[in-house]
């Protein structure tokens, strides 16, 4: 049976059907855990259809596995499709979901039905964001993503400040989203369509609007909404509190992916000239965010807050890469989105397991655990090496491509911002290795002395080893992922430079030549 025209619908809505099923089942024993695990595994298996049947030789800018039907005629269409960018994000989201269920098996011991229903609804929203090619449909999933995450933080946060963190997260995300809706409606009035492919054609022909000031404001509304969700420095005020309170399974998908994807998919596609115009500011903010996040992480005593500022630094690295508008920078930025989802997800999983054993994230209470729990420290060390970009592991490839692309960029002062961003690599290694030293070496801490813990069990091994395998596979076999990603990077670079009136040091012809050279090297 040919699933190509229905696979994206199945991937998106199987978790919704699963959530409805869980709502009807009794919350007894491990029913919710097993039910959620089965649903997320089915969804993940469905996502594997995409890379298995993807046409890697398709022209850049081609969407595959499309479904296109009238939904609210004649205004809104149910239009789905993926390219090299969206495909791997769908697969990543499908992978993280069952691992999140496994890691929450014991951590969520009350109101389990509510937790797993909200978790599945969050998966529906994220899948919908990645596959929607109609702006109105996309916005419906974008708004849906706010609700389950806000409720997860407010209901399952670990301190009395959880509701405050949930409200902060909701307001930070919702207010810019209102501006995004206004900009979308303005676009429809100007063009008569919400269809992304049609909007891309109009943008390339400079035919969206003759009012350059209005077009600039609309582009800022889009970028502002997406930048808050990344978050990009200095719009990160919600991040630390949200990560501090959010359960491990939810925090694995909280930051980065949807915001960065939306910038790449919508800001760069609909507003290419405006995106190029604001690129110097975004590159500067990316470089500053790298250093700021690393320096704040260095002085943290709480593991969750260290991870929050580490997240800010790594996401800022991606911002630096994608706004260079070089193929290397775009490829590296997209690849690093995947790497952050895997390495950052593994780090949050391990921190959650440590909290499950000792009920604290305070590093001052730990020490000397390496002798007692060899598997736990092994996984922590491997994940740390992945996060800091050790050669042969996944993050090294993304960071190398980002820095290469940044040095090739035609954006003003790119050498300065690249040099500043590079220092974040050193600072990142510093705070991650200090974390390992404080947790696992030295004298045995007070909490481990008074509380009996345990090394990794079979369920925890099952959740962590797929991540470790991906660390190595994505480090030594990156062309498997980059052959699809490169098509998207090429398309974005060409689209932006063709739509930018001002002459650029990197022409489309030079960009294509660079792409051919990279293909030969790979």
Describe the model.
By secondary structure, this protein is mainly α. It has 23 helices and two strands. It has one domain.
- Give the amount of beta strand, in percent: under 5%
- Average pLDDT figure: 88
State the shape. globular
Helix content: over 70%
Assembly state:
single chain
SSE order: HHHEEHHHHHHHHHHHHHHHHHHHH
Structural category? mainly alpha
Task: Write down how many β-strands occur, each being a DSSP E stretch of 2 or more residues.
Answer: 2
Quick gist of this model?
By secondary structure, the chain is mainly alpha-helical. It has 23 helices and two strands. Residues 503-522 have low confidence and may be disordered.
Features:
mainly alpha; globular; two-stranded antiparallel sheet; disordered C terminus; 23 helices; 522 residues
């Amino acid at each position: 049976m040919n699933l190509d025209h229905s696979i994206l619908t199945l991937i998106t809505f199987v978790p919704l059907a699963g959530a409805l099923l869980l709502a009807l089942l009794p919350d007894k024993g491990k029913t919710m855990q097993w039910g959620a695990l089965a649903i997320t595994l089915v969804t993940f298996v469905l996502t594997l259809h995409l890379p298995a049947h993807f046409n890697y030789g398709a022209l850049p800018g081609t969407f595959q596995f499309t479904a296109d039907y009238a939904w609210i005629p004649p205004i809104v269409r149910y239009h789905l499709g993926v390219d090299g960018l969206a495909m791997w994000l769908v697969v990543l989201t499908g992978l993280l979901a069952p691992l999140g269920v496994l890691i929450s098996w014991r951590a969520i011991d009350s109101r389990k039905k509510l937790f797993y229903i909200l978790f599945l609804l969050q998966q529906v929203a994220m899948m919908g964001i990645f596959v929607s090619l109609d702006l109105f449909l996309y916005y419906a999933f974008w708004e849906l993503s706010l609700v389950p995450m806000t409720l997860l933080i407010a209901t399952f946060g670990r301190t009395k400040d959880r509701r405050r963190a949930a409200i902060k997260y909701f307001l930070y995300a919702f207010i810019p989203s209102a501006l995004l809706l206004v900009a979308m409606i303005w676009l429809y009035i100007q063009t008569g369509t919400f269809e992304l492919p049609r909007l891309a054609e109009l943008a390339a022909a400079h035919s969206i609007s003759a009012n350059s000031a209005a077009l600039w404001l609309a582009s800022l509304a889009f970028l502002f909404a997406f930048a808050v969700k990344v978050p990009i420095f200095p719009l990160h005020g919600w991040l630390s509190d949200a990560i501090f309170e959010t359960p491990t399974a939810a925090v694995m998908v909280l930051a980065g992916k949807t915001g960065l994807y939306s910038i790449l998919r919508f800001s760069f596609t609909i507003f290419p000239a405006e995106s190029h115009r604001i690129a110097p500011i975004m590159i500067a903010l990316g470089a500053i965010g790298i250093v700021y996040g690393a320096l704040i992480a260095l002085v943290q005593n709480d593991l969750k807050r260290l991870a929050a500022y580490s997240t800010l630094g790594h996401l800022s690295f991606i911002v630096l890469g994608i706004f260079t508008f070089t193929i290397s920078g775009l490829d590296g930025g997209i690849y690093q989105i995947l790497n952050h989802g895997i390495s950052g997800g593994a780090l949050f999983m391990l921190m959650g397991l440590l909290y499950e054993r000792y009920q604290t994230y305070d590093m001052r209470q730990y020490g000397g655990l390496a002798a007692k729990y060899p598997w736990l420290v092994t996984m922590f060390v491997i994940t740390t090496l992945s996060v800091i970009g050790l050669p042969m592991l996944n993050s090294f490839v993304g960071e190398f491509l980002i820095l290469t692309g940044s040095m090739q960029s035609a954006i003003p002062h790119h050498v300065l911002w690249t040099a500043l961003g590079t220092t974040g690599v050193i600072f990142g290694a510093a705070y991650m290795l200090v974390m390992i030293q404080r947790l696992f070496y030295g004298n045995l801490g007070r909490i481990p002395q008074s509380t009996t813990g345990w090394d990794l069990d079979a369920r925890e091994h099952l959740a962590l080893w797929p991540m470790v395998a991906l660390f190595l596979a994505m480090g030594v076999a990156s062309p498997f992922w980059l052959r699809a990603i490169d098509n998207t990077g090429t398309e974005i670079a060409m689209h932006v430079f063709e739509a930018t009136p001002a002459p650029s040091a990197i022409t489309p012809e030079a960009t294509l030549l660079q792409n051919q050279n990279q293909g030969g090297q790979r």
